[in-house]
Amino acid sequence: SSMPDDQLFELADSGQLRNPQKLAAEVDRMLDDPRSSNFVEQFSDQWLDLAGMNRVAVNPEYYPTFRDELKPHMQRETQQFFNEVLRNDLSALAFLDSDFAMLNQPMAEHYSLTGPRGIEFERVALTTDQHRGGLLTQASILLTNSTGEDSHAILRGVWIRKRLLGDPPAPPPPNVPNLDQQSPNVASLPLKEQLKEHRENEACARCHRGIDPW
Q1: Are 40 and 79 in contact (CB under 8 A)?
Q2: 100 closest CA partner among 74, 130, 124
Q3: What are the respective helix, strand and coil percentages of the chain, to the nearest 5?
Q4: Are the CB atoms for 151 and 142 separated by under 8 Å?
Q5: What is the structure's pLDDT at 183?
Q6: What pTM did the predictor assign?
Q7: Tell me, what DSSP letter sits at residue 70?
């Protein structure tokens, strides 16, 4: 996330960066540089749309104990998780599921997990009954893809296709109405039934067939 240093310029000018071994060594050198933390933060924020948390206001009537001061810790958790996968050259499948989480005390308490007793993030091993592995379980992702009152399956499905699969769905057709959440007939239905009703409209169904299963 800055200009190349003198060594990189010299290797580029001499054509040595075309050598795979030399290129790999330079990548490792750049990752070892403290400035690579800028890349970790900026790349993970852009790739995963972590700024989306700030677009969602948590409804205090639903979550009276939630405080906005936790949001930076949520963002940092995801950045630190990406950092752990990157620096240890872990499988990309860890983004889907992992046997560890990156936690500090505020986030461990938020998840009701035993973890660090300080503000710094640490790698914490997860047991099979602690379903907190991977990105999809992290508070930053869950909050971004919610209404601030409840989870939002369609937002999550679109996020998965766009951010994890690189296969964003087409924009919805114009003039397609949203579900009327104020209608007692709709609001009283379980979420899956609400989605089923939405798919009764063929204009909606074409898109939702590629979103809802995720």
Answers
A1: yes
A2: 124
A3: 50, 5, 45
A4: yes
A5: 61
A6: 0.86
A7: G
